[in-house]
């Protein structure tokens, strides 16, 4: 086992809107912890040249990958005919792409026909992205530069999500994120005032992009927190609220890429032994919070595997 870049094994999914291509990268750390980092690129059409150009940008940012997984053409049921042709077995476009990848020592592997579920990791990331992104965009028309800027900011939001505690040290409030596998640290955004309460017709073009980013963050972060609260850890008959454990704090109006983290320092059980209120430490301060505002983060790879089961 040897160290490798986050992009060494990647998967690709092409959105049926002719402006975007989505590359989802996976990294392996020796166990089955899967950061599922996401890289987003914009393309102008479905040609092999556009795909290879996006791939070159991806490799320049993330490093050379060795294996790319994707659906085959028949899995794009609702996609444009040109998109399906790009991934069809007999397609000359596909042969050109595979030839170029082979020259770069990159292997492109396809799922069997009618099995899009085999790409569960990247399909889940793409599904969540598309569900919120297209609702945020609405009928807006963006230039190539504007779309690239928006997707890059959305990518940072996706890759900022906390996966598990970095350690069980009570003094450590850091969480592992996909950003650690990409840049070696937590991804952050430039602090800006939210424009969600501002009427769109009063904003400039770039302010509209910021508003779209804020809208996406508001929708997607709530969905991610909701998914964490339904994991198996919470369905077992145990308190789960141990002193020293790392938790996400459910707060309203958090800035993009910011995830409030805290450690429990004291629990306050009721007379029947149930814990409804705890004292948490956030940075250098302590606060009392109800447990409904806390979302448990796994500590070990075993916990991560349990939540993914």
TrEMBL record:
Pfam families: DUF5641. It comes from the Eukaryota. InterPro entries: DUF5641, Integrase_cat-core, RNaseH-like_sf, RNaseH_sf. One of its GO terms (molecular function) is nucleic acid binding. Residues 17-28 have a biased composition (Polar residues). Residues 1-186 form the Integrase catalytic domain. One of its GO terms (biological process) is DNA integration. Residues 1-28 are annotated as: Disordered. PANTHER family: GAG-LIKE PROTEIN, PHD-TYPE DOMAIN-CONTAINING PROTEIN. This is Integrase catalytic domain-containing protein. It comes from Lasius niger (Black garden ant). The lineage of its organism: Eukaryota, Metazoa, Ecdysozoa, Arthropoda, Hexapoda.
